[in-house]
Design brief:
Layout lengths: L2 H27 L4 H23 L6 H27 L4 E5 L2 H12 L1 H32 L13 H29 L4 E8 L4 E6 L8 H28 L3 H17 L7 H13 L3 H27 L1
Antiparallel strand pairs: 1-2, 2-3
């Protein structure tokens, strides 16, 4: 094995290390990562064979470099096995998925109306970033005042309509949430491998992207994470406005259920979308690692403030 080959393997292992880190982050978020893990496994297996061949024809000149590459390879194998074991432990009991129909649908949809869906993606991303701020301000206001904003619109009415409307709104929120993820992937030319719902240790929808997503521009990751909760917010605004205009109690509770789904997902902590949005913004706009670390830690001051406000309200 020549030095150029060892250098190539080192770069390949470095890329795989970054991919495994991103896969682990997605897995913690509840995203499907089976296909991405399969791709990493194939590359690690290929490197294993190349290292075996190199060790069979040992060259003392590159012995130290070869040992370094082999050590890095063993480390990544251990990390890969750890992630795989965790995925197997949390394997959902029931999975309904589409590997062609729905992925193809997203591709056809964005190819047909490219300009419109790009505009939607940008608008949903802006709203997604906004709803993270809305969540922080809304929770702080509630804990400080004890009042829920806009609660006057939900006074009275039929309990059956309230329950059914809210529950249906949550389901709608889940569907459009995953729809937004799919649109962003298709808009940016990233292949969708499967779309589905699962019920087990994790309950909800999922969209699994091709490995190209791991290598995508950080701005794509921001749009992917922000557009989903942004779409929940946009839908809630539209349904609420129509509901107020036509005095429809059902539409108001559909909006509330949908907004609730987006609201819960917009808290600035991982593995929620709001947490990924916050981290994406910090990583995109701050260069100094110490400053990044400060801002990534500073968000937890918000939760300390919430705890203090909650304690004060209980005591008073």
């Amino acid at each position: 094995m020549q030095r150029a080959e060892l250098t190539g393997l080192t770069k390949q292992l470095g890329r795989l290390e970054k991919n495994l880190f991103k896969i682990q982050a997605l897995q913690e978020k509840g995203c499907a990562v089976d296909y991405s893990l399969n791709d990493v496994y194939l590359e690690l297996n290929h490197i294993s064979r190349r290292l075996e061949q190199a060790q069979a024809f040992r060259n003392e000149t590159f012995a130290e470099e070869l040992a370094t590459v082999a050590s890095m390879h063993r480390k990544l194998l251990a990390q890969f096995e750890s992630i795989t074991n965790e995925v197997e432990e949390h394997q959902p009991g029931l999975v309904i998925e589409s590997k062609s129909t729905l992925p193809d649908f997203f591709s056809r949809l964005t190819n047909r109306y490219k300009r419109m869906w790009k505009l939607y993606e940008n608008l949903a991303t802006i709203c997604g970033v906004g709803i993270v701020g809305f969540t922080i301000i809304g929770v702080t206001y509630f804990l400080a005042s004890g009042e829920i904003p806009f609660s006057q619109f939900y006074v009275g009415g039929s309990p059956v309509i309230k329950f059914c409307g809210f529950l249906t709104g949550v389901i709608i929120g889940l569907v459009i949430h995953e729809f937004a993820h799919g649109i962003v992937l298709a808009n940016n030319g990233i292949k969708i491998k499967r779309v589905g719902v699962m019920a087990g240790s994790i309950v909800g929808g999922f969209i699994e992207a091709d490995e190209a997503f791991l290598q995508a521009d950080p701005k794509v990751h921001l749009r992917f994470n922000a557009s989903s909760i942004g779409t929940n917010f946009l839908t809630a605004v539209v349904l609420s406005l129509i509901g107020v205009l036509i005095s429809s109690e059902l539409l108001l509770y559909l909006a509330l259920g949908n907004l609730f789904f987006g609201f819960i997902n917009s808290f600035p902590i991982t593995p929620l979308d709001g947490g990924w949005v916050y981290e994406d913004l910090v990583n995109l706009h701050l260069a100094n690692e110490k400053v990044k670390g400060f801002f990534l830690s500073a968000r937890f001051v918000i939760f300390v403030l919430w705890l203090l406000l909650f304690t004060f309200s209980c005591l008073s």
